[in-house]
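Input C-alpha cells:
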C-alpha cells in the first residue's frame, strides 16, 4: 500500500499538501500519515515554565493534526495515521522516514513567495531520500489539486 507522508503545520501550504496526498491516496488505494512537528522551545531557566511551554506546543500540534485528520476522514472515510514529534524538523522527518519503510512519498507544500525551509532542504537532498519527494505549489486551489492528483 502506498503511504503518503505529509508534514502538518498551520500554513496554507501544509493544507494544500494534505489535500493532494489524500487525493493521491484515494486514487491509489493508499493511506496518509500526518507528521506534526513540535519545534524545540527556547530554554527557560525555570523547569516548570519550560515544561508548560513544551506541553502547550505539543497540545497545539496534536490539535492541528487531529483537526486535519478529522477533515480527511469526513471527506474520504479513511482516518490517517497521526504522529506528533518534537525536535528539529529535518531530523524528525529523516528519522520518521527511516522508521517507516512503507512511506512511498514525502509530500510537502511550497509557499507562493518562497518554498520554505523543508522544501529547500529536501529538494536539495532528494537524491538521497528513501522515497520520492512531491512538492505541491501552495497557491493551488482545491479544484486544481483534485484535477492534478
Amino acid at each position: 500500500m502506498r503511504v503518503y507522508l505529509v508534514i502538518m503545520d498551520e500554513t496554507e501550504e501544509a493544507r494544500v499538501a494534505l489535500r493532494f496526498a489524500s487525493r493521491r491516496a484515494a486514487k491509489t488505494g493508499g493511506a496518509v500519515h500526518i507528521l506534526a512537528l513540535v519545534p524545540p522551545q527556547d530554554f527557560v531557566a525555570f523547569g516548570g515554565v519550560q515544561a508548560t511551554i513544551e506541553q502547550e506546543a505539543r497540545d497545539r500540534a496534536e490539535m492541528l493534526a487531529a483537526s486535519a485528520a478529522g477533515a480527511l476522514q469526513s471527506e474520504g472515510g479513511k482516518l490517517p495515521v497521526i504522529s506528533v514529534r518534537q525536535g528539529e524538523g529535518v531530523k524528525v522527518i529523516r528519522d520518521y522516514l527511516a522508521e517507516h519503510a512503507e512511506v512511498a512519498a514525502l509530500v510537502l507544500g511550497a509557499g507562493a513567495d518562497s518554498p520554505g525551509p523543508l522544501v529547500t532542504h529536501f529538494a536539495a537532498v532528494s537524491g538521497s531520500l528513501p522515497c520520492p519527494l512531491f512538492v505541491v505549489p501552495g497557491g493551488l486551489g482545491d479544484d486544481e489539486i483534485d484535477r492534478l492528483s
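The chain has one domain: 3-148. The first strand starts at residue 3 and ends at 8.
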